[in-house]
Amino acid sequence: MTDRGPSAGSVPGWPGVPVPAVPPEGVLAVDHVARWFGNVVAVNDISFSLGSGLTGLLGPNGAGKSTLLHLLAGLLEPSAGSVWIDGQRAWGNPATYRRLGLVPEREAVHDYLTGREFVRLNARLQGLPDIEAAVDRTIALVDLPDAADRAIGTYSKGMRQRIKLAGALVHDPPILLLDEPFNGMDPRQRLHMMDLLRTMAAAGRTILFSSHILEEVERLADSVLVIYAGRLAAWGDFRSIRRLMTDRPHTFTLRSSDDRRLAAVLLADPSVFGAELADGLLSVRTSDFGAFTQAVPRIARAESITLFELQPTDDSLESVFSYLVRR
Amino acid sequence: MPIVAVTLRGLLGRRRTILMILLVALPVLIALLVRLADSRMDVDRILDAMLVRTVLPLVALVMGTAALGSELEDGTAVYLIVKPVPRWRIVGAKMVVAAGLTAALVVPSAVLTGLLAGGTGPALGTTVGFAVAAAAGGAAYACAFVGLSAFTSRALVIGLAYTMIWEGVLAGLLEGTRFLSIRQATLGLAGGLSGQPVESGSLDPGLSVVIVVVAVGAAFVLGSIRLTRFEIRGAD
């Protein structure tokens, strides 16, 4: 294991499992990248760059998520444009794999090896100086010490995912690419993996993971990349993306000391074009998120109404995603 | 070297190993039967027919295509490819293992078959010649098939067609194709080492060495270039 500086702490809920700090230098850059297979355009003129943090890669099946991850991992040559990893071209440059860890979606792992042997293989191929220490640390990190000496062929799907992650992490890469990393994991394993990824991102790593489960991305990612039909539909914090969807009204629920009167006065505000009081809950629709959130406290104060709660109801990643893919 | 070790583990699966041992035991069994029946059979003829023409290419084909091709096919090769390791080292390691295992299987088979058919008398030279030639020819075959599997997922079928059609039929009909036949090079080497040509019109031993070296070298260079540009597609 290479020394990358002081420890950034341990995985929450997993005391004694250290996550080494990484200098914030992991950067992925994609510059007008396209990739086609015959007449099929899998990825079409995509550009973005990612620094440290957790980014979720979202898109319907067949949108081009895996193709994009494979382009980033240097496993596919771009038909146009270029992919950069820390300033070096990803394609045809094995040296970049010192700084990159990849967890592919395919389940296949060398079934005849034990988990420990598989992680050791990865460590030896990375040319690490203290192989056994790196192997032990990584196996503990993915919470597989009890099964490490069993053949991978006997592993469950979730265990396979974790041993694949261990193989990708053994050299402490500052950049991690994970293709559907939560596939096959039980809820406990999922939570552990989420904690682990959060801690690693907080330690300065650049992590890009694809998932088709919106809830996972919403809970985990600092920002999202939304791919649809091979194109980049949106990129950034999904709540900010939601704010930009001005052609779709925002809905808020409110609780106050006088919901009926609040509804009446809010309807007079130009940013509000609908209010509904049902089951003791006031719902208001507005076209302007910013103007509305500024107007509500001002109006409530002017009317001497006490505001208990103001909650956007369609500010979820699901609403953003369904909006983007239906456009 | 980790790639050599993991390839060895992969190739020495129980089913494949048993199958290969049964295959290389075939010429030994036939020689034993001939000996038990007290019949006479020339050592060079049995080694030519049973080992060089049949067992050797089949063993090398299975080992050569499985060493790299099966990992590319099932997706486990990605764990070797996404490492800071030059691709020629991956190809080289696969070739060393495939050639080594082929030799480890066919050389004992050649020696036992030769000893059973010809004993330790004057035929011993022929036996040794064939054993050494089988190791060299096996290396050429195995490397060629490792290289081929970097180019196509149908390496097994193409390799089979090469040994059965090209070498089995065309090389006998068209004199010129002998220079592109590993089998002919193996027989040329065996003839040279045992002191008498295996058949009339056999290749010169020196030329046979050149063919074996060119086959190994070309497979290594082309396979490495191909693996350097090898693409792994995603699920979408």
Notable characteristics:
heterodimer; A: 327 residues; alpha/beta; Rossmann fold; Alpha-Beta Plaits; 2 domains; six-stranded mixed β-sheet; four-stranded antiparallel β-sheet; 32% helix; elongated; disordered N terminus; B: 236 residues; mainly alpha; 9 helices; 78% helix; globular
Could you please describe the fold and organization of this structure?
The complex is a heterodimer of chains A (327) and B (236). Chain A is α/β, with parallel strands linked by helices and 327 residues long. Chain A folds into two domains: 7-236, P-loop containing nucleotide triphosphate hydrolases (Rossmann fold); 242-314, 2-Layer Sandwich (Alpha-Beta Plaits), CATH 3.30.70.100. In chain A, 32% of the residues lie in helices and 29% in strands. In chain A, the strands form four sheets. Chain A has a six-stranded mixed sheet with strand order 8-9-10-5-11-12, with helices on both faces. Chain A has a four-stranded antiparallel sheet with strand order 4-3-6-7, covered by helices on one side. Chain A is elongated and about 70 Å long. Chain A starts with 6 loop residues before the first strand and ends with a helix. The model of chain A is unreliable at 1-8 and 20-26 (pLDDT under 50). Chain B is an all-alpha fold. Chain B has one domain (2-228). In chain B, helix 2 runs parallel beside helix 5 (87-118). The radius of gyration of chain B is 18 Å and the shape is globular. The model of chain B has no long low-confidence stretch (mean pLDDT 90). The A-B interface holds A 37, 42, 61-70, 73-77, 92, 94-98, 100, 102, 104-106, 108-110, 112-113, 118, 121-122, 124-127, 167, 179 and B 2-3, 6, 9-10, 13, 74-76, 78-87, 228-229, 231-236.
